[in-house]
Known about the structure:
By secondary structure, the chain is of the alpha+beta class. It has one domain. The protein is built from four helices and three strands, in the order E-E-H-H-E-H-H. It has helices at about 20, 25-40, 55-60, 80-90; strands at about 1-5, 10, 45. Strands 1-2-3 form a three-stranded mixed β-sheet, covered by helices on one side. A hairpin with a 2-residue loop joins strand 1 (about 1-5) and strand 2. It is elongated, with a radius of gyration of 19 Å. The relative contact order is 0.12.
Amino acid sequence: MSFYYKDDVIAWHGMSSLDGSEVQAGKLMLATCMHEAAEEGYRTFNLGASLGKSSLVWFKESMGGEAHPYRTVRHRRLPSRLVAALRRVSGPQ
């Protein structure tokens, strides 16, 4: 499943069976999605965060990917926001 917005595509979820891993079905699925997105004029295809895992970095680089930093938005619940505000006010400990 991928999401399309403006010029960008983000691969949100994809999977193949264990049997599919023998023929690299997951890689084929992503490569096909990337190819179709490029043909339709999308500029970027976001494979998501690598979470510091070298195997994910290697996989993405093997498909021509490169790191691209971007901002994320987090919604914190009130208690977390209050703790963060108190830390800012009290300064370094």
